[in-house]
Amino acid sequence: MVNFNIFTTTTIVTILALISNAAANPIAKQAHPVKDYTKVIVTGEGLPTVAELGLTHEDLIKPIDPAVFGQTDKPGLSKRYNPQCYNSYKCSYSDALACYNYLYQLGRQQCYTAPYSRFCYANNCNWIGTVISGQSSASSYCSDVALGGAWVLQNCGNPLAGANAANGNGGLLVSVQV
Length: 178
Prior knowledge:
This protein is α+β, with helices and mostly antiparallel strands. It has one domain (30-177). The protein contains five helices and eight strands, in the order αβααβαββββαββ. The strands form two sheets. Strands 1-4-5-8-7-2 form a six-stranded antiparallel β-sheet. A hairpin with a 2-residue loop joins strand 4 (116-122) and strand 5. The model is unreliable at 1-30 (pLDDT under 50).
């Protein structure tokens, strides 16, 4: 027979409540230690600034709409790159999310790389484009670059690092990393 005293029972109940709350609270993944991402983001060469787009801090920290993941993997396209998570060079989820939201808001603006370009930088987090198709350059809509990188945010934890092809373009690799 197990003899629990009140201290032990209270401790167990408290620990179970904390575990339950942490599991039920996905917000923890999206904590935003930066007070104003509009002052932190450095945009890639030739891309408009956050101020030019009129984006606010709230625009840059909003969670990724789950419907976005339904926009990837277009039918009829053969997959030419297997996405991957990196074990090092990790950056914070919130910094990566701010760059995702910036790039996604660029829509059909071209994100161009020849052979390497930094599209966005927030604190220590880079969104880097690299040519992987054997060509000397590649470009995609910046929103498709964001969709490619969204895979990393969804699958690589916090902190995170990884790479995926731009949505619909297996020749442009999007790396999210320090």
